[in-house]
Amino acid sequence: MYSTNYHRASSVDEAVALIAKGSDAKFLAGGHTLLPVMKQRLAAPGDLVDIAKIPALIGIEASGDTLTIKAATTYYDIMHNADVKRMIPAIAHLTSVLGDPAVRYRGTIGGSVATNDPAADYPAAILALNATVKTNKREIPADQFFKGLFMTALEDNEMITAISFPVPEKAGYAKMRNPASRFALTGVFVAKLKSGEIRAAATGASQDGVMRVPVIEDALKANWSASALDGIKVSDDGLIEDIHGTSDYRANLIKVMAQRAVQAAG
Amino acid sequence: MSKVSLTVNGKLVTADVEDRTLLVHLLRDHLGLTGTHVGCDTSQCGCCVVHIDGRAVKSCTTLVGQVDGADITTIEGISKGDELHPMQAAFRDNHGLQCGYCTPGMIMSAIDIVHRYGGNLDEETVRHELEGNICRCTGYHNIVKSVLDAASRMNVAQAAE
């Protein structure tokens, strides 16, 4: 990788100040997306600000109908957390099929969400559960956060501090994994919120990254069951077509994964 | 350049290295601990797995700054003198290695798996948990046998303590 300067921040304020002062600076949490990209010389931040050990960014809080996961909490700690398993088991499941054990020890939810890789898993959960992305400056609703491939609503010097999930009535996640990279070839998160709203989000499928799937939401609104999706057809417009699968294949995967997600949700 | 201090296999180590230095390069190039391997450039193969504060992670995807102050154990640090770690002994007895390139990472990941699961390991779990370690000889069958064998040896050893 190209030369860089490493800084370890001990507070959110210090981290943001270091970023503002750095040259093309980037936040570093688990580093399991950023460092591989830097090794390939596709990114060359002059300064890295390590936020993984900031106490205010680590931990999980359950209060009433809200589950808040702080940004630098690792996948390992999320999937084994009793509140996560009790309140939104679909998130524990999603985390358990993300990466591999060594990756799960280091990767963080904030890192995944800030990167917004088009095949990352957490963006699907955030969009389907209508979660709120909290930053050092404001709170951003899920529908306004994801802006396309690797793009988010985050501004310069803005850092995700936590994600707040409303506890749903039911939720499920199903994913067809690329066997080599373990990224989602297509993953679908479905949720029936306590407000009655039904939301479904697909990752790994669209050229624009995570997206809601209205045709699935409409069918589930009429009848929350896997069989309600038997007759639907998901359009392959704008879906990814690559060596792993055609856009048509992914369109069908969205439907099949949605059915499995509904079954998992019960 | 930055000065980092960390504990490697029980010894305190201090090094003056460029900030871009990866932990695996500190171990191999600066400390001469070449048992930890680099098998890919994409953080997928697991040949470089070491324990950082007791957790099996990829040293090729960790900057030295991130482990300043940490406690590292590599494949060189798990035996007691000439007495192999039960995981190493099980790999030898079960022919758990062919070319051997992936073996250090396999062993470091496998020890972590046994620590997490204790006596509740079965074949399916071991195969699933080893998903982050790739063997290009495709010798997984005996690797899985080795891990299961070691798990019973380690649990017996623990019970005896």
UniProtKB/TrEMBL annotation, chain A:
Q: Which Pfam families does the record match to this protein? A: FAD_binding_5
InterPro entries assigned: CO_DH_flav_C, CO_DH_flav_C_dom_sf, Diverse_Substr_Oxidored, FAD-bd_PCMH, FAD-bd_PCMH-like_sf, FAD-bd_PCMH_sub1, FAD-bd_PCMH_sub2, Mopterin_DH_FAD-bd
Record keywords, A-Z: FAD, Flavoprotein, Oxidoreductase
Q: Does the keyword Oxidoreductase apply?
A: yes
Query: FAD-binding PCMH-type domain spans which residues?
Result: 1-170
Q: Which GO terms describe its molecular function?
A: FAD binding; oxidoreductase activity
Q: Which SMART domains match?
A: CO_deh_flav_C (SM01092)
Q: Name the source's superkingdom.
A: Bacteria
The name this protein goes by in its record: Xanthine dehydrogenase family protein subunit M
Provide the taxonomic classification.
Answer: Bacteria, Pseudomonadati, Pseudomonadota, Alphaproteobacteria, Hyphomicrobiales
